[in-house]
Amino acid sequence: MVDCEQGPTIFTVVENHAKVETRINPDVFLLENYAALQDRIYELASVVPALENFYNQATDAYEQACLRFVHTMINYQFERLFMFGQKVENLLLSVEPEQVPSTVGFTKADLRKTLRASLSGVEKSLHTTYMRMQKSLHCQELLSTLWDTKFKDVFMEKYRSLEELLQKCYKEEPLTPSSSEMKAILDSVGVLD
Fold first, then answer.
1. pLDDT by residue (tens digit) across 68-114?
2. HSE-up (13 A, CA, CB side) for residue 60
3. Domain extents for the chain?
4. What's the whole-model pTM score?
5. d(CA 180, CA 85)
6. Is-contact 157 99, C-beta < 8 A?
């Protein structure tokens, strides 16, 4: 009988290897390895129910690595945009929404400057992000899942929140493209690749 407590689990080995592997993004390393573990353990868990716990652990670790990687990709191109929204939310803790545009650093001109810098050529920026994700992954089968179910969902959640926030504080300054237009742009990226 093997004592499972004697050595490190496969999860510990993968996590430790991700810390020392310098040729690849740690989150990419983790999500690719956890995806593989998840696939293999799923097959075994259908025959050996005791492995279901390991499948769930691999699934959770995969989801966490995916989300970290997606947030990194979003921040690479759009950090300034979403940081502006975060700063507005923080400001709303001490001022009323109608006071935001008259606050230094949050004027309509500051908003326009941020939107112009972040959203000018947004189609190209999103395509660049998609290509960066594609280049980062060794397992290309994961790209469509990462893009379609993770990146788009997280990005659109952040974008819709920003749109609602701007409607609340800057009534005459609509977010362009709108959420529905942004969703159409996102849906068009990666279709032909």
1. 999 999 999 999 999 999 999 999 999 999 999 999 999 999 999 99
2. 7
3. 10-188
4. 0.88
5. 19
6. no
